[in-house]
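Holo prediction — MRU.
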Amino acid sequence: MKVEGRWRRAIELHDDRVSVLVLDQARLPYEIKWMRLAELEHVARAIRDMHIRGAPLIGATAAYGIAIAMRADPSDAGLDHAEAVLAATRPTAINLRWALGAMRSILAPLAPSARSEAAMKAAAKICDDDAAQCEAIGRHGVELIRAAAKRAGDRPVRVLTHCNAGWLATVDWGTAIAPIYKAHEEGIPVHVWVDETRPRNQGLLTAWELVQHGVPHTVIADNAGGHLMQRGEVDLCIVGTDRTTRNGDVCNKIGTYLKALAAHDNRIPFYAAVPGTSIDWTVGEPEEIPIEERNADEVRFVSGRGSDGMPARVEIVGNASAVANPAFDVTPRRLMTGLITERGIARASREGLGILYPELST
Ligand code: MRU
């Protein structure tokens, strides 16, 4: 997708063909800076400290992490070590475990001498497949926006989204934002309500992406969504997911559940965009999903740009107060209107997902 008018991906192979470039999301939206990841530890730190984030991109970056590690040590012990280091970075997004499993299944049967080259190819394929999956989600999801446009008449379709499930969170296209990009390409007028998404404000990443593509949008405080829904100013909600159970419960960025409750109360369709790689077929119920508890400083401090234009960090919670920072919540399937996958739109249920993924559901 577009960065300052140039078509880029959120992760790209470096010209040296042995390291990768990622857009440093910790600096966005204030500064555009590409980071080179050349060692396993660089990759692990980039994921852990959220220089890259978003479930599909975490998976794709981890795949390259394995490939980079295989160049340094392609032995069985090297593969085990790289997998363990990367698996420990973030617990909730299932795409991480999926990508590590996919890499292992390709590399483990090979002789160590063949692993480095095979790993680079496999990581590149994971990235290409991710982009294709997201594009397909866009194609299926745009049908919902087309239908809403018919009902909207002359005014734009107003879509509310939470966190960043755009192309920054994937290799390309995004998941929840892909249908919006498709609609924009088709000339369907769309307006996006962008939840700020405290505490890390990933909504600002969504706003930045939408600016790059010229998609009309408005950033709102997280608490504003319910009010806008009550006033009839939201036609549709689309969010991403970090892990969806085989029964259709959607784990996503903290605050998603509250938006789903408000949408349900106001009879507003609430969809999650769910690539197959985000479905955890081993998990049936929400309580089984590990919810990442992140550093309290993410709540205690707010980061941004000072009036001098320089990066600034301001403390907003007095240090006598305790702070909790659960990073994800689970929206129960009963609140989901449907799941937009690369294979079509499914009901949020075991049966619904089973129709689209018969080979994976049991
Ligand atoms: O903590 P983050 O920023 O990695 O969380 C990201 C989200 O919750 C996204 O909505 C989700 O990964 C879907 S990304 C296409």
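READOUT: Residues 244 and 251 are 6 Å apart (CA to CA).
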